[in-house]
Write a structure and sequence with these properties.
CATH topology: Creatine Amidinohydrolase
Radius of gyration: 18 Å
CATH class: Alpha Beta
Number of strands: 16
Number of helices: 5
Distance between the termini: 26 Å
Largest sheet: 4 strands, antiparallel
Length: 313
């Protein structure tokens, strides 16, 4: 789940508008979590409070984050098998919720600042934080599923944009290059590099393919807190000079658009959509900065990730 930043306008070459546009469906009741499953501090009140955790993880926290990240990766692979025309995002939320609690974890989005569901499902022009509802997926849609699990006191956060049936060439390019941009951002991670190196790698790639880069939502520190104080922008600003340090854990989760990246938020106060109704895609991994580069937490023990398993190019 992305962190919010301020708005900024960009003008890009226009691409087809999503037709019909996504509209809110019926949202079912909040799902229950068995009492025996440990909960994050915000689970009851919805308020996480101010970010207070250190950006660098302890050895015990890193070990726990490997477990949480691997579980999140496995759950996202499970979610990908549900994606098909006619399936509602409400059903995806229900089945992913049950899979997470079956594994003994808590679905981190549930009641985070009041969010009503266990995963985020963002369809077509929805940039992020889409709330699962009664709308069925249609052939040609794209949908981002954002899974975060809370396990052993830490969070593992990952997402993929899936293609539903046969998508158009614009959407396929958007999905492919957003995935590539995420990995270019990940490759920029090394001890001592400034945070802006990540955004520079992502934005350079996006501009090469005439894609917009959303600025209002960014990557974030993650560990014992769902969102810590560390900020990871996906655009280049040389003023973002915070040095990456061995032991820092955070997400890289670029959101790219086929048109201008300007957005507005629905009345539900969560669902962010492109202002021009052109499509958006997002990919996300949780990773650790190490002495010789980085380690991606959100892969299975065998090294699999949904971003590759479900890739169609």
């Amino acid at each position: 789940m992305a962190k919010r930043k301020r708005s900024r306008t960009a003008t890009l070459e226009r691409a087809p508008i999503s037709d019909p546009p996504v509209r809110p469906g019926l949202v079912g009741p909040r799902r229950r979590v068995p009492r025996h499953i440990p909960r994050p501090p915000y689970a009851r009140t919805g308020e996480p409070g101010p970010a207070v955790s250190a950006p660098v993880r302890s050895a015990a926290e890193i070990a726990a984050m490997r477990r949480a990240g691997q579980m999140a990766a496995e759950v996202l692979l499970f979610a990908g098998r549900l994606v098909a025309p006619g399936v509602t995002t409400e059903r995806i939320d229900a089945e992913v919720h049950e899979e997470i609690v079956r594994r003994g974890a808590y679905p981190s989005p549930l009641n985070y600042r009041g969010y009503p569901k266990s995963v985020c499902t963002s369809v077509n022009e929805v940039i992020c934080h889409g709330i699962p509802d009664s709308r069925p997926l249609a052939d040609g849609d794209i949908v981002n599923i954002d899974v975060t699990v809370y396990l052993d006191g830490v969070h593992g956060d990952t997402s993929v944009t899936f293609e539903v049936g046969e998508v158009d060439d614009h959407s396929r390019l958007l999905v492919r290059e957003t995935r590539a941009a995420m990995y270019l951002g990940i490759e920029a991670v090394r001890d001592g590099a400034p945070v802006c190196a990540i955004g520079q790698a992502i934005e350079t790639h996006a501009r090469t393919h005439r894609l917009g880069v959303v600025r209002e939502f960014i990557g974030h520190g993650v560990g014992t807190e769902f969102h810590s104080g560390l900020q990871i922008p996906h655009y280049y600003d040389r003023r973002h000079t915070t040095p990456l340090t061995t032991g820092m854990s955070f997400t890289i989760e670029p959101m790219l658009t086929l048109g201008a990246p300007d957005l507005y938020v629905w009345d539900d106060q969560w669902t962010a959509v492109t202002a021009d109704q052109r499509r958006s895609a997002q990919f996300e991994h949780t990773l650790l900065c190490t002495g010789d580069g980085m380690e991606i937490f959100t892969r299975t023990p065998s090294g699999e990730g949904a971003a590759e398993v479900y890739a169609r190019d």
